[in-house]
Amino acid sequence: MRTDLLPKTGTLSETVHFHFHYFKPIFIFDVINTIIMSNQIQEFNEYRSRMNEVILTKDNLVLKRLYNLDTNAYAEGALPVRTKEMLGLVASMVLRCDDCIKYHLGKCHENGVSTDEVYEIFAVANIVGGTIVIPHTRRAAEYWECLTAPQS
Questions:
Q1: pLDDT of 1-29, one tens digit each?
Q2: Which of 52, 95, 123, 129 could form an SS bridge with 133, CB 3.0 to 4.6 Å?
Q3: Which CA distances in Å does 49 have to 53, 54, 71?
Q4: What contacts 127, CB < 8 A, 6 or more positions away?
């Protein structure tokens, strides 16, 4: 925190007035929500990395080959990576795999998929998968909000 921006002396009331006068007011809900959203992304990515490492260090050839196939399936080819990630997101939603949905939403975000495109993906997944996909769409929408929230 930059203490040089704070008043050097004064009452609490004067300090609060100073902040509201010189800085755009920040609502505590917005601050907490931003922290929670960024933590949600960080926690998911850290957990996924940690557990993938645990699994791969067990030296199981079948699992290593499966992970390799998965990686290569989403590599650039006749279809661009961006398209493959959108397809992966639809499939993950229809299969109702929340971890997979988060992963592919992250990859879609990295590959420049827009919010409008994501909501069309949600629509296709719900048409294909039926109303059972709606709860996963809610969680997907929440995670997309986290990914696209302005970073402070």
A1: 444 544 455 554 454 444 444 445 555 55
A2: 129
A3: 6, 9, 14
A4: none
